Amino acid sequence: MQFSGEELTFKRIFNYFFGLFLITLGVAFSIKSDLGSAPVSSIPYAMNLIWAIEIGVATFMFHAFLVLIELILLRMDFKAKHFLQVFIGVVFGAFTSFSVSLMTFIPEANSFIVALAMIAVSIFLIALGLFFYVPTNIIPLSVEGVTQAIAIVTDQPFAKIKVFLDISIVSTALVLSLVFLGNFGSVGLGTVLGAVFVGTTVNYIHKIYGRLTGEDVNLKKM
Minimal CB count within 10 Å: which of 37, 57, 90, 105? Predict the structure, then answer.
């Protein structure tokens, strides 16, 4: 069976869903650290804090909005399969809710050092998840879909645009939190660190993988 011009193998499907799950685990670790949510979930988490929208539902709403932005950016180059990003937003929202529930088994961060360690784990898991699922070229999450779209339109590296977009998302979440909550809300030190280092970590994983295998993974393939 072909999908996006490539055979839809078990390995390709496994890498896709495994990568998505790793990202949601990273999101959950970030929230558990109490140093702010991961950049990818900062706006949905702000929606949860402001309007009490369940985190999975808020995640779906945010991803649906990003699909619209992607459509505007790509215009005629927007493929029919990319509308399925809305459906994948539901899957990602469910994964997020499940991963957050798993954190009940993880002890609370009883010191700043432990909280920072959780953020480090979060950044690595999100970056590794991106590296697993993005190259499968099945259906990107809308966040990565927008990242890919901007990278294609501007002819810039995926990792560089990832940092730019994460910072933009975090800035938006911060403004929402300040306006409606009067505090930083979903944004904390961990959110800022994630915005700065997730894209960079993806780049390092990409380089290390290339050196170990001699293969070049295309992170802008859509």
Answer: 105
Model confidence at 1: pLDDT above 80: no
Tell me the C-alpha to C-alpha distance, in Å, between residue 184 and each of 116, 138, 167, 171: 18, 36, 15, 11
**b/e sequence 162-175, b meaning 16+ C-beta within 10 Å:** bbbbbeebbeebbe
Given a cut of 70, whether residue 177 has pLDDT beyond it is yes
C-beta separation of 142 from 63 below 8 A: yes
Nearest to 71 by CA among 56, 59, 81: 81
**Of 55, 82, 53, which is closest to residue 69 (Cα–Cα)?**
82
- pTM for the whole thing? 0.81
C-beta of residue 24 within 8 angstroms of C-beta of residue 89 = no
Burial label for 189, CB within 10 Å (0-12, 13-18, 19+), is middle
The pLDDT tens digits of the residues spanning 87-145 come to: 888 888 889 889 999 998 888 888 999 999 999 999 999 999 999 988 888 888 888 88
Count of beta carbons in the 10 Å neighbourhood of residue 17: 16
- CA–CA separation, 170 and 176 (whole Å): 10
Q: Which class for 96: exposed (0-12), middle (13-18), buried (19 or more C-beta within 10 A)?
A: buried
Q: Is 2 helix (H, G, I), strand (E, B) or coil?
A: strand
